[in-house]
Design brief:
By secondary structure, the chain is an alpha+beta fold. About 25% of the residues lie in helices and about 30% in strands. The longest helix is centred in the middle third of the chain and has 19 residues.
């Protein structure tokens, strides 16, 4: 597949700080569908991963989870570079296959694919990671998702809501989340009325920080696409009765 595009070199950029050490794998390409066509596949990757400062098993577990989530892998990932190359080449194959038919409308021939992941916060010695994926396959608009991952640095395992909150938390915390949205959007009742409040509940996509917990909902999860991804924040003070 390397003959079909100009491959940007993968960059390993050191980004270590204190004992926790990371690097960033980067890759970019712009590949025309053919020499005679301007339609192109645009791809961008920037993925931070762990290189040291944690137990070896924890590093491996964190990186495996990052790669599996970022590249939507069904089988176990290899190294960061191997997984990234496999994803890029599969994307190219899909692009060429889907657009091989000359009857495909021109508006659908320009694709975009962007993945960006980084460690964004430390909370109670745990590592919070934000992964953003954007894709465009022609048409009126693209699609994007924002995924939070919270890692236990000792084991590399993911921390869940059940690890933080007492049994029976779901209904009362759901109501706290709805109250947060009502307060945040008190000055924009039209937007608030567009949100499907009955769908607002802990969804596993959360990030804790010094202020509280933020839950992220993707476009279409609790509102029409026009409202985009929606963050719902609940303070530790409000969550106190439900914390373990």
């Amino acid at each position: 597949m390397k003959n079909h595009f100009a491959l940007a070199a993968a960059l390993l950029v050191a980004a270590g700080c204190s004992s926790f050490q990371t690097s960033v794998y980067e890759d970019n390409l712009a590949m025309p569908l053919s020499e005679s066509q301007a339609d192109s596949l645009f791809y961008s990757l920037s993925l931070e991963y762990v290189t040291g400062g944690l137990p070896k098993e924890a590093c491996e577990q964190i990186n495996n989870t990052l790669l599996t989530t970022a590249f939507d892998l069904e089988d176990g990932p290899g190294s960061v570079e191997e997984s990234a190359i496999r994803y890029r080449e599969n994307l190219i194959d899909e692009y060429l296959t889907e657009n091989a038919n000359p009857d495909v409308p021109g508006a659908l021939r320009s694709w975009g694919d962007e993945i960006e992941g980084s460690f964004t916060a430390d909370w109670n010695k745990n590592k919070c990671y934000t992964l953003t994926y954007s894709s465009f396959r022609g048409g009126a608009h693209g699609m994007y998702t924002i995924t939070y991952l919270v890692f236990n640095p000792k084991t590399g395992t993911l921390i869940t809501e059940d690890d933080l909150l007492k049994e029976g938390y779901r209904e009362p915390v759901s109501e706290l989340m709805r109250e947060s949205l009502r307060a945040t959007m008190a000055d924009d009742k039209e937007v608030l009325e567009s949100i499907w409040l009955d769908q607002v509940a802990p969804n596993g996509n959360f990030c804790p920080d010094e202020k509280g917990i933020s839950w992220m909902f993707q476009p279409y999860d609790i509102a029409p696409y026009a409202l985009g991804a929606i963050s719902v924040d609940v303070s530790w003070e409000q969550l106190t009765p439900y914390l373990k």
